[in-house]
Amino acid sequence: MDDVPVENLSEEEAKAELASLAIRLARADYDYFTRDDPDLDDAEYDLLKRRNRDIEAIYPHLIRPDSPSSRIGGPISESFEKVAHADRMLSLDNAFSEDDVRLFDTRIRNFLGLTDSDPLDYVAEPKIDGLSLSLRYEDGRLVQAATRGNGEVGENVTANALMIVDIPAMLNRGGPNVLEVRGEAYMRQEDFEELNARQGEHGEKTFSNPRNAAAGSIRQLDSRITASRPLRFFAYAWGELSEQLAGTQIEAVERLAELGLPTNPLGAICPGLDALIARYRDIESRRAGLGYDIDGVVYKVNDLGLQDRLGIRSTTPRWAIAHKFPAETAFTRLNAIEIQVGRTGALSPVARLEPVHVGGVQVSNATLHNEDYIAGRGTSGNPIREGRDIRVGDRVEVYRAGDVIPKIKDIDLTARPADSVPYEFPKTCPECGSRAVREEGDSVTRCTGGLICPVQAVERLKHFVSRNAFDIENLGAKQIEQFHAMEWISEPADIFLLEENRGAELAKLKGSGEKSASRLFASIHKRKNISFQRALFALGIRHIGENASALLASHYRSFDALLLDIDEMADPDSRCGPRWEHLVGIDGIGEVMANSLIDTLAGEARSAVDRLRDSVVIEDVEETENAESELSGMIVVFTGTLEKMTRKEAKTRAESAGAKVTGSVSARTDLVVAGPGAGSKAKKANDLNVKVIDEEAWLTLIASRS
Ligand code: IVH
Q: Known catalytic residue: 644?
């Protein structure tokens, strides 16, 4: 088509050509930037690029989110194009025990009318811990790659998929004309470590595990970034097909391999339940040496005819199940207990460990929560770990459940050094020396230094600029620490005066320079207008999190109105009457919160807040049309691990869309959002026929109303 003059292209042709140019140019970028082995010479490359731009000039509405013109220097679009999967992308039911697997086998046999002694072949394959992709090949050529999304609609990541060396742009001959390959993009552990080291050196975001790194690398609007990331791929399933691949699962996967797709070598036929369990143990024993993360073994009925008969139950096939590995633990030595001071002055003990690999990730820290936890007491004084306390020098068993900070499961008393002593929780703040007190009924010990404690000040500033608060890009933890140490920033308002007061010095700063200074000032400038909710949350007032900030914003509508009321209640004796009733009458705002809010905003922090208000515009809340929201009035439950946002954020966003978030599933629940590791709640929802969706689907749902 390249020879048809651009003006003569029909809209349809233009669209098709833009799609193919996006792929060709992405491939060329990859050859040039990553493989260092360009296929096109510069002139050819420029010609394609120009043609792409010319078509876009005639049909601006056809410009693709992954348009090659926007990749070089130009603005990067904010989102991926959505694509509908020709065949739904399914997920898998989980089995956590041999009993669960037995039940799986029994159900299948019952369904098919087989007895226990009838032969039934399964295939066992490792469950790769990455993110699933659907690759659509037409006549052997990759025409589209999409993420799973909500199973029905995913994101178009074609240009990025082409950057993955494992994913062929062309298949070997002999495959079906239409072939949708399903599989997992993942990162090998050593590649992940190397990537993180590189990211760290450049002061860029590091990832907590290979799966997050893989997901973050695929979901890049700039495919050159994807190209620089060491992604891999295993094919294990398929969607739409113009003709069958084979009669069995194992042969179908073999066909995929013949067509040039990488498949996992550990897949094997298992004739029945006992063989499945034996294979599970075998794969589990090899897990640590594989070089990539797996989180279980997937069992599939081998005969594709039987798979068809068994069919699908809502979003999961009856013919497959994922037998998950238990959370991995490892023993290591507790070298020290250190205390970190947070922005509210909380003293948090952290275990410094002899580095150890747990679940494919090196762990050297674990949370110790608080004084009681170390002493072997739970929140209500009940013993935990059968009352065993934790001491420096102990051999401890650590585990990682999902993405969370590692925890200590237990200690090995037999290995306790004879001279060890119980840990004594500090009575003073290790950062400023002020007294540290633990109030009655509180499990947390706090520094009483307030504004004189430098760490609290820095942590508050970090919180102030963080993503859910002012969200100031280019002003990270390192800069805050540096600028605070230089006394350029000691309170939030100083951030907005930085350019005026320190602009010239900042531009000359070592390791920074004019460009990054002006980038920083632009990011700060961008946030001069801020929503009431974010501004309030950013202040980091104790007990006033995102949720409370959202509630207060929607009830008071303007920051001034809130302050007017607060000033009237500055005196604790005046905390009664209609103003007080209004405040504590807000569903979700209790007296402790209200007191903390008033004490802070009418107390020593007020002058700093007033200075901030002089530097930024805190927007009033407009009337919302929550009634129109699809989520309005819905009762939503979150369960399992959320990967894209914190629970808090999820809850706040749900509530600001008019939904109510509760902790337990009942017949009244409208929707359950289940992340990985969702257990009994998701099960219960299924039993009660409550709709269960995953985080991606939730994001789509919530995005569609904002
Ligand atoms: S089969 C029809 N096989 O696990 C079933 N999935 O928890 C489609 N996964 O969404 C999936 N390894 O992303 C299948 N060998 C494997 C897998 C696998 C990893 C992922 C996949 C899926 C998720 C379900």
A: no
